[in-house]
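Quick log. Single chain, no ligands specified.
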Amino acid sequence: MADIANDDTARLSIGPAYSLWMLPQPDAREHLAGVIARLSRRFGTRAFEPHVTVQGDLTHRLRDVAAVADGLAQTLPAQRWRVRGIEQSSHYYRAFHLAFDGCEAFAPLVAASARALATDAGVSPFAHLSLAYGTLDASAKDALAREFAAEIPSTLTFDRLAVALSGKSVGVASWRTLQCFELAPSAPNQSGEPSP
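-> predicted structure:
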């Protein structure tokens, strides 16, 4: 298990960093925050706000990141993605995460963010919502995936783009949302009815 004290102090020498996060709707956000809190106790690591990282570790000025987030939010409709299930990896920040289907808008969003901020540093390699950070062996993670599977919704809707204080230079206990920008209204579907 990771050492919580080291997690919070080992990254503080570089300075503030910001991230662009997609946030789930409030009810799902509250539910997932509870799942993350319980899993953080099992992993022995810090809990964090449920989010999908678009781009992280940004050392730009806060107002510049916020301007980019505002511009991107105005062009991106709210996203409803199917949850494929809980997946895992050996990467600390993707140790235990929700994987999605139907998230075709994510890669163009990441590319637009990187262009607007003139860097591809910290771009997310794929759409995922982490449930726990840290290290556990595969068999323990398999058991947790089975235990928590029933608590995972079949779809999630993301309706805001946020600027967060977060990154490798900021201890997880200090991560927080600083500003939120509502995503554009969903485009109408073929029948003229609003999309879900």
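Residues 74 and 151 are 32 Å apart (CA to CA).
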